[in-house]
Amino acid sequence: MAGQVEPTRAELLAMAYVDGELDGAEREAFEARLADESDLRRWVAHYRALEVLARQMAPPEPSDHEWARLEGSPLHHSGNLLGWTLVGAGGATLLGIGLWRLCTDSSTGSLPRLAVLCLVAGFAALLALCIHARVRLLPLDPYRKVQR
Amino acid sequence: MIVVTTPSIEGRPTAEVLGLVRGTAVRTRHVLSDITATIKVLVGGEVTEYTKLIAETREQALDRMIAEARARGADAVLGFRFATSEVGRAMAEVVAYGTAVKLRPESGAPPGE
Questions:
Q1: What confidence tens digit (pLDDT) does each residue in B83-99 have?
Q2: Which ipTM score applies to this complex?
Q3: What is the CATH number of domain B2-103?
Q4: By CA distance, what is B45's nearest residue in A?
Q5: For residues B14 and B7, what is the distance between their CA atoms, to the nearest angstrom?
Q6: Which of A39, A136, B24, B97 has the maximal Cβ count within 10 Å?
Q7: What is the pTM of this model?
Q8: Cα(B34)–Cα(A2) distance, rounded to whole angstroms?
Q9: What's the rounded Cα separation, in Å, for the pair A28 and A44?
Q10: Over 70: is that where the pLDDT of A68 sits?
């Protein structure tokens, strides 16, 4: 086909690996390369995602069409955005007020105040680490496109 | 890789039983999906957030089982089953398992093909 680029050796190997066509020694050699080569990891994730999607080829149900139409409607979209913005703003404000009161309340001892601040800071650090790991793994997760 | 729920495949006798193969996956949705799903409980109907969660987990467990079967040199997995349980709130655990086997060549096919 005009304009179609021939797959590289790495792509062909990734296809064969995902399809289970490599024998034991070839598979082990390929898996050793996977640990070091990020391009190869991305190709494997891509072809695995195609394989997973191919298994999802059941015809759509009537509710799927209606659900897609609803999700695409401006009312649904703007309502969703407004709802989540209000929930996020309310939650963040409440958390901020709570922390502010804790820090400025003279009746609270400095030790409990420190403990709560450590708790909040520790939770924030762990959350940041989880988000970082998820963002790094997201392109390699072929299952996130599975619908049903 | 042939994966079937039956104990055998017609026309393809089992040459060697390689043993149990299984794949386990536990997945969760993010907290915003969980909140949306909780709100949907008020009105009923399909909770697509959790349908998607279970489907993702099922596919991942299936792939892990197939990967183990391939690593053992199997041609097929017989007696395939899914099992599910709840590990934690809003988490789905799926175990895919079956018996990995090597099959004899299809009848009529030359040996080694």
A1: 998 888 788 999 999 99
A2: 0.75
A3: 3.30.110.70
A4: A63
A5: 10
A6: B97
A7: 0.80
A8: 47
A9: 15
A10: yes
